[in-house]
Design goal:
Strand order of the largest sheet: 3-2-1-4-5
Order of helices and strands: EEHHEEE
Distance between the termini: 21 Å
Radius of gyration: 12 Å
Shape: globular
Number of helices: 2
Helix content: 25-40%
């Protein structure tokens, strides 16, 4: 599962991470379900496989299963600009 993690600082930082195991996907989903988005971000970043940093101009057409920020989670297949 591919996750786009958005850290809302000026400027925003965006990281594409792959959750490579079923147990990690379950862990992140459970944390989101319990409104623990920040902890879900930490788990994904440290336990998942870092793909790359994503720049703003790369967002249109970028494929991700989950867009995760400190306060929200959005299940999506492609991101919008």
């Amino acid at each position: 599962m591919k996750v786009l993690i958005v850290i809302a600082k000026k400027p925003k930082h965006r990281f594409l991470v792959t959750l490579h195991s079923d147990w990690l996907v379950r862990e992140v989903k459970d944390l989101i379900k319990n409104n623990r988005h920040s902890q879900a971000m930490v788990s994904a970043l440290f336990k998942g496989r870092f793909e790359r940093e994503v720049k703003g101009n790369e967002l249109p057409g970028l494929e991700a299963d989950l867009i995760l920020s400190e306060k929200t989670a959005s299940w999506d297949h492609t991101t919008k600009a």
